[in-house]
Design a protein that fits this description.
There is one protein chain. Helices cover 10% and strands 24% of the residues. The chain has 1 helix and 4 strands. The strands form 2 sheets. It has a two-stranded antiparallel ribbon. It has a two-stranded antiparallel ribbon with strand order 3-4. The termini are far apart.
Length: 59
Amino acid sequence: MSSTISLPSCSCCHRHIMPNDKCVKFNCPNCGEDLIWRCQSCREAARNYTCSSCNVLGP
């Protein structure tokens, strides 16, 4: 029996987000379709993310 775990990745730096990481997730503020994940490092540095559904650029 094999099971795989799919970890989310940061929408800015694309690093995997581990279960105990301080991160945020939210729906795209423009279209509401894409789920945006941001790691603590990218949030603190205010790095931009891009929605894969509507291509909006956010801080």
